[in-house]
Write a structure and sequence with these properties.
This protein has about 120 residues and is mainly alpha-helical. The chain contains 5 helices and no strands. Helix 2 packs antiparallel against helix 3. It is elongated.
Length: about 120
């Protein structure tokens, strides 16, 4: 009896996802940013403890931690830039809303139609 109930039950049940999966380039940039940021935080902790201990390693680790901070900042910005580029290239349909002003060209064309010369009007 137990074997029948076990086979009837599913081993894996998919849970409903609240958010869609990130696109591959954005996910790659995000993973890279997390890895770089974690290495930077580890370097900062090592720099702090080596400074407190008075080790000769304090200066080189501090310099590399500062450089890594710059790289980590760029990697986080890279996630945002990659996300924006992906959105522009793949899938965001940009349509003007109903409150948007008409383009200058369409307004100019409408004004030309409305403003007929007096010789044609007579």
């Amino acid at each position: 009896m137990e074997d029948e109930t076990r086979s009837a039950r599913q081993l894996w049940v998919e849970a409903e996802r609240g958010r869609r999966r990130m696109p591959d380039p954005v996910r790659n940039a995000a993973v890279r940013a997390v890895m770089i940021t974690s290495v930077t935080l580890i370097q900062a902790v090592v720099a702090f403890f080596s400074t407190v201990a008075g080790s000769w390693l304090a200066f080189p680790v501090t310099v590399t931690a500062v450089a890594s901070t710059v790289v980590a900042t760029w990697s986080v910005l890279d996630v945002w830039i990659t996300r924006q580029v992906w959105r522009q290239r793949n899938g965001v349909v940009s349509e003007p809303s109903s409150t948007a002003r008409p383009s200058i060209r369409s307004r100019r064309d409408d004004e030309r139609v409305d403003a007929t010369p007096l010789s044609e009007a007579a």
